[in-house]
Prior knowledge:
Elements: H1 20-31, E1 36-39, E2 48-51, E3 54-57, E4 59-62, E5 65-72, H2 78-90, E6 96-104
Parallel strand pairs: 5-6
Antiparallel strand pairs: 1-5, 2-3, 4-5
Organism: Branchiibius cervicis
Amino acid sequence: MTLNSNHVSSEGVGGGSARPELVDAIAQAVLATPGVQGLHSGRFGEVATYLPGRRVAGVRTAESGSDIHIVVAWGHPVPATADAVRAAVQRVAPGRIDVTVEDVAAPDESLR
């Protein structure tokens, strides 16, 4: 489910132009958002930023903004959680923030 129909270009995706400190700040902001169970790399693992020696799943950056893919914790409202993620990321990263909810965690998985 995409809650923002804007598309983030794949230009700049990967380790070449991605700033590790920005990608890490985005991931931390997302994971600290109530209702977020985790980041999600997409159906085929395509949503990620490649940094030297590692890969940050669920975060894709470009000059125009960021593409964030998440798993929402059971019992949390999907639209409100996506809005909260967008607001959290906007505090640390410039540009447009697209949030895609890839899944909702099962009720027996730990809640935040």
